[in-house]
Design goal:
Strand order of the largest sheet: 4-5-13-7-11-10
Structural class: mainly beta
Largest sheet: 6 strands, antiparallel
Number of helices: 1
Mean pLDDT: 82
Distance between the termini: 30 Å
Radius of gyration: 19 Å
Order of helices and strands: HEEEEEEEEEEEEE
Helix content: 10-25%
CATH superfamily: Galactose-binding domain-like
Low-confidence stretches: 1-21
CATH class: Mainly Beta
């Protein structure tokens, strides 16, 4: 009987945490990429598109696109780096700076479909002056191949000096490559 109550209490705790997580708002603005910023050539509102050049000044031609997700709801974003090949350590990114709280637990996730290339998802953690402090990468939780989205996720706790996080959906070391991102999410976790 003692084990029954332990199992019951643990189940209630898990259900309570799950319920709190579902009610936490997604801190990523325009996470479904439905609002467009027409002043920025039709790119998603609250997102910045950026191509970073390598140390040799190579800046490849990159396409940033908003596309139907193919998953039933919302849009996805796509980055395409067409041939002819390598541009050193260049990167193409969708960026969003998000206000967060110090000393707080967070969960971050995004669905990613990598057709080709290297496509990490990072979070830059920044201080109150928006200066870089540290970086967190999302881990791929599942691999659904090149035809389906795969979940990438992580959780972290901010330190006392962290006030911002910059989400970076990227394709790195640009050569020919194509990646799509869908449903980015950042939520505050209960203590």
């Amino acid at each position: 009987m003692k084990y029954f109550w332990v199992i019951m209490m643990a189940s209630l705790l898990v259900l309570n945490v799950a319920a709190e997580e579902k009610t936490s708002p997604n801190l990523v603005k325009n996470a479904d990429f439905s609002q467009m910023d027409h002043a920025k050539a039709g790119q998603p509102q609250f997102w910045t598109c950026q191509v970073r050049v390598d140390k040799n000044g190579n800046k490849p031609e990159v396409q940033f696109q908003v596309i139907p997700s193919g998953e039933g709801e919302g849009n996805a974003v796509r980055i395409v780096a067409p041939p002819p090949g390598k541009a050193g350590k260049s990167a193409a990114l969708y960026l969003q700076l998000i206000k967060i709280k110090p000393n707080t637990n967070y969960y971050v996730s995004c669905l990613r479909r990598v057709k080709s290339g290297w496509a990490p998802i990072f979070f830059d953690l920044r201080d109150k002056n928006k200066k870089f402090v540290s970086i967190i990468g999302l881990k791929q939780a599942e691999n659904n191949g090149r035809d389906r989205f795969s979940l990438c996720e992580n959780s972290f706790r901010t330190g006392p000096d962290i006030h911002y996080a910059q989400m970076m959906l990227s394709i790195q070391n640009l050569g020919a490559g194509e990646v799509e991102f869908y449903k980015p999410m950042l939520i505050e976790l209960p203590e």
